[in-house]
Amino acid sequence: MHFIDVILPIPIQKTFTYSVTEDEANFLKKGMRVAVSFGKTKMYSALVLNIHQNAPTLYEAKEIHQILDEQPLVNELQIKHWQWISKYYMCSLGDVYRASLPSAFLLESETVIYKNEADIDTSILLDDEFLIYEALHHQSQLTIHQVADILGKKKVMPTINELIKKSAITIHEEIYEQYKPKLVKYVRLHQNYTSDASLNSLLEELSRAKKQREAVLAFFQLSTSKKPIKAKDLEEKASVSSSILKSLVDKNIFEFYHIKTDRIHFEGGTNDLKNLNEFQEVALAEIKEAFKEKEVTLLHGITSSGKTEVYTKLIQEVLDEGKQVLFLLPEIALTTQIITRLEVYFGNQISVFHSKYSMNERVEVWNNVLDNKPKAQIILGARSSVFLPFSNLGLIVVDEEHETSYKQFEPSPRYNARDSAIVLANIHKAKILLGSATPSLESYYNAAQKKYGFVELNRRHGNVQLPKIELIDVKEKQRKKEMKGHFSDRMLKLIQEALDEKEQVILFQNRRGYSPVVECKTCGVSPECPNCDVTLTFHKFKHELRCHYCNYQRAMPNSCGACGSNTLDTKGFGTEQIELELKDLFPDFKIGRMDLDTTRGKHGYQKIIGAFEAREIDVLVGTQMLSKGLDFDNVSLVGILNADTMLNFPDFRAHERGYQMMVQVSGRAGRSKKQGNVAIQTYNPFHKILQQVSTTNYTEMYKEQLQERWQYKYPPYFRLIKITLKHRDYNKVDIGVNWLFKALYSSFGENVLGPTAPAVSRIRNQYIKNIVIKIPPKQNLANTKNQITKIRNTFEAVKDFRPIRFIIDVDAY
Fold first, then answer.
1. 661-707 pLDDT, tens per residue?
2. By residue range, what is the domain housing residue 441?
3. Which of 4, 44, 56, 54 minimizes the C-alpha distance to 26?
4. Which has fewest Cβ within 10 Å: 198, 463, 490, 567?
5. Sign for the pseudo-dihedral over CA of 568, 569, 575, 577
6. Does any domain span residue 389?
7. DSSP secondary structure string for all residues of 473-534
């Protein structure tokens, strides 16, 4: 007997064993998908992990349903990486499998219903049952979804079960492939018309059908280029509609045929790489030197120092060796600019992979990487691209490595793409370069400890100086009545000066919407979200209140729901309010806004960034999307409207993040010719972080923060594991979390913090409680995790605790 162990795309820790025939066992390879039944009726596409001859002892192995692949879809290096992620981040292999593959590959079955051959007495059927039975007379089969549509309700299984009992129908589970290749329609002449004589008679024949004749003539013009002719091109050339072509096909003059094409391709010339300046040359040489001894190198290059140019040189060298390159970016907004830059040099060798791409497009990138095609030599992507099936990776570049967007929080696996990429590089024996103007404390600490190579690039490209940063004291300005709305007189003056010089301005406010709090002046009540513990944000454009946690929305009320008075007042401000204020203050200039609300859709970012680059927008207001590595050559002023919200945040990283965010935003100013300006409005200009930002003093910030981290036992010295419990019933969570705390305390003592409720303690009607476990430098990580797993298993064995969601997040912050 032959058996296979498979990973199922469901959150279960163990692999399952199924039986296969000898022929199947010989054909199967590690990394192929097979369709298997699991549970009572469900079918899944599972991934083969091992092929062996040991029968499982605890259960009888079922047979597989069918083999879905000719070639492995996932390679062994990937599986090795998945196993590391599953072990390190304490999640199941099924979770990683589910997160890695484009959803088109994760087939789940659909129940299909057929009518029984023998007719039955319809008088015994109820109304709903009769509807379905009738429908099956017109269609040979129905899926569960179609039944739900016919009956207009979600719960249809009881009705179907009744029909089975009355032996009116039978059911089967069928698996569907979801990916459909894109077919492009081409036109060619029918074989009757290959000789010249037949062509002359054809044109005479069509002398009355003017449009059809034009289409044929246009076809001859296009056919001179000897390329296959697309139906669409022919329609455009002859300016005829598709029905004309169809009638020519019906007359057997033309034929249609299809060719499969990829959905994404970049047209790009391959220009020579830019020459580096002397500082970039030195940095490049130092990076290569560091790579001789170290796998990982950190490049600390100040904003606008030309890090991308250094990356391109390194990428070129790796491509020349015939290896693949992965270029990780934190934000999808960034990919739009970097693609255009890299396309110029590498043209068709680039593929892009991120969540704004459709499922079919992601499948194509996956297949191209798997086959190591020329068009997938460089992969540009957000965090999920570490899961692609690379076969010979030579270099990984992690740009803006300090970014929190590299960490996945929900759903599992809760991995950090930067750390996973370091392990991936190690598996491939590749090199990895981390680049940032404001490195995370951990990476800088690792470089200081000589664990990573370290290279600095501290001159801006073209020797432009770093921007002048000034702090504006809002408290003082309010006392002197020099504020206009949310702008101080100084900020307005700077904006006016920039606009007069025909330069552009970026204003940063990390809140979207119009105002985060609506309050009744009479009784002080604010409208709150019914599902979460937060006040609703007012969005003026749609005149509605919205919850930014669960997307609940309702119209803005005219009067207070509590006391009926109509004195509703808004507090705080978001990007939308700033945009409207600016329109009043600068009516002659174009104001744009970039936040989650304006960048919906695949090309949302491109439109706004494109318009700003083309100087169609004079002032761009935005949230933190704007702070990431974007490059605009005409921006001379960056304004930060409220620096305090970033610093006064209950999180041990708040100061580090505040510093990074402000330095990154200010780095958008004065990038090409002259020195830029940065104005930061704050209630506390003497805050040490703001002082460090104003002098762009990274090392001082690093030393000070490191001192605090050591004192209070936080990373990079101590590791953190956060455990979160969620449930709709507050008492259940409370009892569960207290039991859990005692169990953990008896194992880890004082290093267990909690239990605490987060700032927003209820989201989507789920109450939340957290416990944080600190792991000292000398403590064995693997043993700690095993102990936590044991406690978790005991916790989940208690009947009352079973419905509580138990989430483990390793390196949570």
1. 999 888 888 877 788 999 999 999 999 999 999 988 999 999 999 99
2. 278-463
3. 4
4. 463
5. positive
6. yes
7. EHHHHHHTT-EETTEEHHHHHHHHHHHHTT-EEEEE-S--SSBSEEEETTT----B-SSSSS
